[in-house]
Specification:
This protein has twelve helices and 22 strands. The chain is α/β, with parallel strands linked by helices. The strands form five sheets. A seven-stranded mixed sheet has the order 1-2-7-8-9-10-11. Strands 17, 18, 19, 20, 21 and 22 form a six-stranded parallel sheet that branches. Strands 12-13-14-15-16 form a five-stranded mixed sheet, with no helix packed on it. The chain starts with a strand and ends with a helix.
């Protein structure tokens, strides 16, 4: 069902209440999401993005109830990823032949590579305009936010920025606007979205936002491709992105571990006690990487000024959940964060040294050689671990 944002602009997307995983099994979406599509009516009518492939027929059916498809003059593809473009094939099957699709040059490659269709692509770049009548769409390339093909579109007179994957959240709601929902939930989903999807591209986000602000565009509404629309003080999320992109950290230390017989778990808890004894103000998070959701783990790492990573030595290495999360952390390309390693062992004990070296490749400042414990920590070793935690704090 279409929902009016202004006299000219309507939301015609899909709210996905049941979505629990995204990007395959990489991103956990406990609060669902939405695939935001927008219909702009002026002398010319354009459709901005579609919906995810499983909802292609539903999307086109609902759109036909809102408008005669022959009256849509163009489709704007801000981003070719399947959650944005998935309904294109079903839509173009029913659209007038040769209906133009406006996208970036990389957008053509992306869409053709996925759907193998030779549609009427119209390549645009930053500053190009599409005159709709009283209003004009201005295109703004936003490469690597978060794919090479991504772009924004700005609608003058309405002062709306259609921001694709920028400034969104995976959050299904009966409401349309960010100011209508519980704010802690909203910002928790917003930072989770940034940490897990956009964190590797912080430098590019800063550059693009700076470029956008230098254009001096009045912005009354920011319409992302997922989640809630920013209409009340919309630049608040832009300010947050600048903060998050600038080597973000809170007064938090996160301890990540996996364990076989709870020895490494005991080590993690003892280190945390030492930290808390030394500094009552610091937030300490202790997360078992085999049991905690990886999306949440990465968000807590993003928030942290320091992380500790612990694993027992198994087959001359460390446990696979630690290996997996470290690979994801490396991909985040974090800066200005400290780290250390710890772990228990029975006979060989290589894991701590291996973790220490890998943390360096992830961009962390490793502050010491780590802490190894043979077998189960006794009372004296726990005291040493507490001192280790105090020194780190």
């Amino acid at each position: 069902m279409a929902r009016k944002l202004t006299d000219r602009v309507s939301w015609v997307g899909k709210t996905d209440w049941e979505l629990k995983k995204f990007h395959g099994d990489e991103f956990t979406t406990v609060n669902g999401s939405s695939y935001n599509s927008y219909l702009v009516r002026d002398e010319k009518t354009v459709l901005i993005d579609t919906a995810w492939l499983p909802y292609d027929k539903e999307f086109v059916k609902n759109l036909k109830e809102e408008i005669n498809l022959a009256n849509i003059d163009a489709v704007i593809a801000l981003h070719g990823e399947i959650d944005h473009s998935g309904a294109l094939t079903e839509l173009m099957r029913e659209m007038p032949e040769n209906t133009p699709i406006y996208c970036t040059a990389n957008g053509v490659k992306s869409i053709q590579g996925q759907y193998h269709k030779d549609w009427n692509f119209q390549v645009v770049k930053t500053g190009d305009k599409l005159l709709l009548g009283e209003t004009t769409l201005t295109f703004i390339e936003a490469p690597m936010l978060h794919w090479p093909d991504t772009m924004f579109a700005y609608l003058d007179k309405e002062n709306i920025l259609f921001s694709s994957d920028g400034f969104g959240q995976h959050l299904a709601s009966e409401f349309l606007y960010a100011d209508e929902v519980e704010q802690d939930l909203l910002y928790n989903e917003a930072i989770k979205y940034y940490a897990n999807i956009l964190a590797p591209f912080g430098m590019m986000a800063t550059k693009k936002i700076t470029e956008l602000m230098q254009m001096n565009l009045p912005i009354d509404m920011i319409c992302p491709s997922h989640g809630l629309i920013w209409r009340k003080e919309p630049m608040q999320i832009v300010t947050k992105y600048l903060e998050w992109a600038n080597h973000y950290q809170e007064n938090q230390i996160t301890i990540l571990y996996d364990t076989m017989w709870n020895d490494t778990k005991k080590m993690a808890e003892a280190i945390a006690r030492g930290m808390q004894n030394k500094d009552k103000t610091v937030t300490i998070k202790i997360l078992n990487t085999a049991k905690n959701d990886k999306t949440d783990v990465l968000t807590e790492v993003f928030r942290s000024k320091m992380i500790l990573v612990g694993s027992p030595t198994v087959n001359n290495g460390y446990l696979h959940s630690i290996a997996g999360i470290l690979e994801m952390i490396k991909g985040m390309k974090l800066k200005d964060k400290k780290a250390a390693a710890f772990g228990s062992y029975g006979w060989s004990g290589e894991a701590v040294k291996q973790l220490t070296e890998y943390l360096k490749t992830c961009g962390f400042e490793v502050v010491n050689e780590g802490f190894r414990c043979m077998w189960t920590p006794d009372e004296a070793t726990e005291k040493e671990l507490e001192k280790f935690g105090e020194d780190l704090a």
